[in-house]
Amino acid sequence: LKCKFQVLPSDDPLDQPDFNPVDYINSIFPTEQSLSSIDDVLNGMECKIHSIDNAIRMVVRGQTNVDQDGRTALEEAQHVISELFVHIHDIKVKAEQSEEMVKEITRDIKQLDCAKRNLTSSITTLNHLHMLVGGVDSLL
């Protein structure tokens, strides 16, 4: 199978989709005399393996750090949300207390308004009574 798209483009023959190990070995060791350099080729491949292993370890460690950073960010967000919830609850309690105080003040104002009407009515009645007594005195 040949892929049109590659995640990481590479010219390395080992990464090719139609890789043939026999052709690859024949290209490295074209003659019997070239087999004398087999130790050098093996050392080079071991170095490449170690390099790839190190790269994989670094990527895995990087992912672990990213996961840890993500967890830390999530924990911080949860902490901020819980603090926000506490603040909202406090505001709600204070709003309810303010509403109760407004109701009490309104009730007191209504009582004072009623007392004012009664006092005004009493003064008017006393004034009329005074005028009546004055009129009765002048008649006698």
From TrEMBL:
It comes from the Eukaryota. Residues 17-139 form the Vps53 N-terminal domain. InterPro entries: Vps53, Vps53_N. This is Vps53 N-terminal domain-containing protein. It comes from Timema podura. The lineage of its organism: Eukaryota, Metazoa, Ecdysozoa, Arthropoda, Hexapoda.
